[in-house]
Amino acid sequence: MKYKNYKRKLDILISLIGLIFLMPLFIIVSIAIKVESKGPIIFKQKRLGENGRIFNIYKFRSMVVGAEKSGVYELEGDSRVTKVGKFIRKTSIDELPQFLNILKGDMSIIGPRPTLTYHPWTYEKYDDFQLQRFLVKPGVSGWAQVNGRKELSWEERIKFDVYYVENYSFLFDLKIIVLTLIKVLRMESNLNINETTNNKDVNRND
């Protein structure tokens, strides 16, 4: 049986196990978020999924309510990020609610990270090569994330994404999972420190 035929089953199994074992952490983080600042525990945001389908991605809220009005990217010393938010971003705990996205069928454990509906471009503005990144479900982590993450330009990220789409397999996914865990344990930077696209029409503070 080809890997793509049972990848979905593995995603569901891993997500269920993750939700069960991490439930105590979910409760602690939820209480901490609610105690520190007003607003919802879960942050929802429109993203582009497989074949350009729009869905709501789930994250633990790490910024004050309304922070997106000043841009969606966290910058060094960003005052919009709460104290709890700094910790859960640094440890990638804020991404854990995406297990729910996986169960819903929006995402996979491994795949290209789902882009915003308008950044770096709208779906219609991706060229034929770039559109290949949407041929599979987006992932919690991907090949681009373990090869530079936000230090890469969007053009570079998409090349890694397309490479993944053309070559994904069980062993490739396993390799990305291991490399992702190493990066999480090292708590490597998750900030956009460089210009991330050559598209001059894009607001680089979003």
From TrEMBL:
Domain Bacterial sugar transferase: 7-185
Cleaved signal peptide residues: none
GO MF, any single term: phosphotransferase activity, for other substituted phosphate groups
Pfam family, one: Bac_transf
Domain of life: Bacteria
Ranges annotated as spanning the membrane: 12-33
Keyword entries, A-Z: Membrane, Transferase, Transmembrane, Transmembrane helix
Family the entry assigns: Belongs to the bacterial sugar transferase family.
PANTHER family found in the cross-reference section: COLANIC BIOSYNTHESIS UDP-GLUCOSE LIPID CARRIER TRANSFERASE (PTHR30576), UNDECAPRENYL-PHOSPHATE N-ACETYLGALACTOSAMINYL 1-PHOSPHATE TRANSFERASE-RELATED (PTHR30576:SF0)
UniProt protein name: Putative sugar transferase EpsL
